[in-house]
Please model this.
Amino acid sequence: MNAEACLQLDKIIHERGRMGIMSLLAASPELSFTEIKRTLAMTDGNLSVHIRTLDQADYVSISKSFFKNRPLTTCRLTPKGKRAFKSYIAQLERIVQENQR
Model:
């Protein structure tokens, strides 16, 4: 196994919760905070921290609005986030392929 290839994985995405968020958003154009929370079975606080990290890296954008007089927070991948996620997946595939030889 090439340890260097593993060290090159994007550490922002590699954490389990953030990988889950990125995976969900890669499959949907936009999801609400509640949808992400329910799907990944995360607490409000835990999800907030992960989304903030992804937002600070410019991997996700956050929109706040109101729906039926209730606050609605939605997230979507940014172009930079889409590129980073595709690169991350490609790196994982290279690691798997190397280990199958």
About this structure: The domain at 3-99 is CATH 1.10.10.10 (Arc Repressor Mutant, subunit A). The chain has one domain: 3-99. Strands lie at 31-32, 60-67, 70-77. The chain has a mean pLDDT of 93.
